[in-house]
Fold:
Amino acid sequence: MLKQRILTAAVLVPLLVAALFYLPPAWIAVLFGFIIGMAAWEWAGLSGLQRPLTKATYVLLILLVGAVGLYGVLSQVSLIVSFFAAAALWWLWALIELISRRDARKGMFATFAGRMVGGFLVLVPLWVASVYLMAVDAERPRTLLFLFVLVWMADTAAYFTGSLLGKTKLAPHISPGKTVEGVAGGVMGAVLLAWLCGTMLWKFDSEQLARWIGLAVITVLFSVVGDLTESKLKRVAGVKDSGSLLPGHGGMLDRIDALSAAAPAFVLGGMILLKS
Structure:
């Protein structure tokens, strides 16, 4: 399994990085929309939709709402903060649900309607946030690439730290394999990456660097919520992976679950902590 994960990542990561550097922003938006569409297809299946036509309709609706969100955020400056604040509030509510509901089959995603709406709340802000970071970055794709690497590094550090030192289960009723020690390792990896990039690439002063590191920590903690939220949906659906598209990784949704919460949190946090 680990060998498959490494081989798949070795193929896909360079392709994604090359696309970020060489494709124009409009094509990046299309590429991300394609990824969101694949994830929405998997979400539809996990939510109980079985017919290809109904799943395709759900995917198209998510892409339509996402396109409207993209247009609104990129054309109306006044909508930016409210849009990402709403997304962050959804994820905070998801965190409360994860903590308070010990039975994974109750609360969030317990109903078909809840799962249907949840797909929009999870996937649309991710698409909008990713394209927004590309659009506003004068040195693109530096900021978006940092976000991707931040989440990937935190996930990798959490995996190995949890494997070596993990003893305290984080949320055994949702994801038995995740540990508090693993999350701590992921946070430490995020701090190290943020410090390195903040000093070497962005050349922040001490105050800005502290805020930058704080933003990285917040982003990684949100990524854990995104990961657990998708795990809860899979637990409700009674499956291990969202799909089998990516060998060793499961489905597309399994690869972007952490980013789905991390991206809007990173954008909103950056507006608040780095505006000065």
Notes: Residues 206-237 form the longest helix (32 residues). The longest strand covers residues 175-179. The mean pLDDT is 90. The chain has nine helices and two strands.
